[in-house]
Write a structure and sequence with these properties.
Helices cover 51% and strands 3% of the residues. It is mainly α. It is globular, with a radius of gyration of 13 Å. InterPro entries: PBP/GOBP, PBP_GOBP_sf.
Amino acid sequence: MRVIVAAVLVVCSIAKLSQASTLANEQKAKLREYKELCIAESGVDTALLDSIKNGGAVTRDTKLDCFSSCLLQKIGVQRADGTIDRDRVIEKAKTSNADLAKVNDVIEKCKGLGGKDACEIGGNVLGCFIKEKTLYPYWTENTQ
């Protein structure tokens, strides 16, 4: 399955669901920290993340899925068992001025995605959100 997988706040996971959605400097700093921790934890190739950042489509692998899951867990929207906490997604969306109607629409389209473990679920969920064109790689917002 080809998918652009980025790291973000699941529907708005401190990224951007609409043009009006913005990140505070403190949120950007926290995302940088999470990104580095998740790179170390997952072992994902940083060249792959750079490719994603530049719009490249990639073939998913376990390391990329685990990177995605790690980020979703660190921002508090994915539980340890891999399930997504819809209420936390909505709560996070509200803090970034996201379009809540769009957030709910995407949650409906992407709900119920499973996987064999938290990593696969994280990859599936982020892949769906990106496919729905609601997310872009968070680090394009000068979080590097």
